[in-house]
Design a protein that fits this description.
It comes from Temperatibacter marinus. This is Flp pilus assembly protein CpaB. InterPro entries: Pilus_assmbl_Flp-typ_CpaB (IPR017592), RcpC_dom (IPR031571), SAF (IPR013974). By secondary structure, the protein is of the alpha+beta class. The protein is about 20% helix and about 30% strand. It is built from 3 helices and 12 strands. β11 and β12 form a beta hairpin. The radius of gyration is 35 Å and the shape is elongated. It starts with a helix and ends in a 5-residue tail after the last strand.
Length: about 280
């Protein structure tokens, strides 16, 4: 056998071995993919949050998605695809915050008509308090449960000369709105104007809010979602942060008089006290 024949024989053997190897790899890959698909089909699907749902949020069907979940990791309180009905999750109130991608448990949602709804969604140590609002002071239907608002007090003060001045102050900031009694009655119907808004406040803030309601008119200012995104437990501020006088918005309104500066001292002789004005007055 000459060298040419030997070389061709070796080349043929190498080709056969290569073809056999590639065939085995191909069929092995196909088999693994098939087994993987079968395994995925057999995995149960549970409901998870499509986006982070904060406490007090009212749920919609688009807030959730179905995902395959390891069979051993499925708990009895998880909501599974088998026998699922949309009314199980639609229109419910989030009792415990659900982060994006986390399984939805039956205990994390409660019926919005349940009398214990407000107590269930209250942060421990906080209180629920209602204030009177109207279409103008209550953000006119743009605020919903779970939103954050600032509380503005508008009132009139009187100085020593019995002159009256209007002032508006931001007395509370970043307060969670638990609910507002403005409801839509269906397509093509009018919206009933809100009369009360329920806020989540600390016990001390509740005292201040009660007093503020007696002093003047309370208004709600809706905050951007970006201010509270991912941090639903931001601590509310219960103090006056800023204020505006009537003359700041209208030139017609008078500016409060500043107290005259004095340069005087008190001189006490026995039981008698005299005030001496160093500027020359008595």
């Amino acid at each position: 056998m000459n060298k040419r024949a030997v070389l061709l024989l070796i080349l043929a053997l190498m080709t056969i071995i290569f073809v056999i190897y590639m065939s085995q790899s191909f069929f092995k890959g196909v088999e693994q993919k098939a087994q993987q698909k079968v395994a995925e089909v057999q995995l149960p699907r549970i409901l998870v949050a499509k986006q982070t749902l904060n406490i007090g949020a009212v749920t919609k069907l688009k807030d959730f998605i179905w995902v395959s979940w390891p069979d051993k990791a499925v708990r009895p309180d998880h909501i599974t695809e088998q026998g699922f009905k949309s009314k199980t999750v639609v229109g419910k109130v989030v009792r415990h915050a659900i982060v994006k991608g986390a399984p939805v448990s039956k205990a994390s949602l409660i019926d919005s008509t349940d009398r214990s709804t407000t107590a269930a969604i209250l942060t421990p140590g906080m209180r629920a308090m209602s204030v009177m609002v109207n279409a103008q002071t209550g953000v006119a239907g743009f605020a919903f449960a779970g939103d954050r608002v600032d509380v503005i007090l508008t009132h009139v003060i009187e100085n020593e000369e019995r002159k009256r001045f209007s002032i508006s102050e931001t007395v509370m900031q970043n307060v969670r709105l638990l609910g507002i009694d403005e409801r839509g009655l269906g397509a093509g119907t009018k919206v009933k104007a809100a009369k009360t808004a329920t806020l989540e406040v600390s016990p001390k803030m509740a005292e201040k809010l009660t007093l503020a309601a007696r002093l003047g008119t309370l208004s709600l200012s809706l905050r951007s979602l970006e201010d509270v995104s991912g941090t639903p437990s931001l601590t509310p501020v219960g103090e006056t942060l800023s204020g505006s006088w009537g003359h700041d918005v209208s030139r017609v309104l008078q500016k409060p008089d500043e107290k005259k500066k004095t340069n005087a001292v008190s001189v006490t002789r026995g039981s008698k006290t005299d005030v001496k004005d160093l500027n020359g007055g008595k």
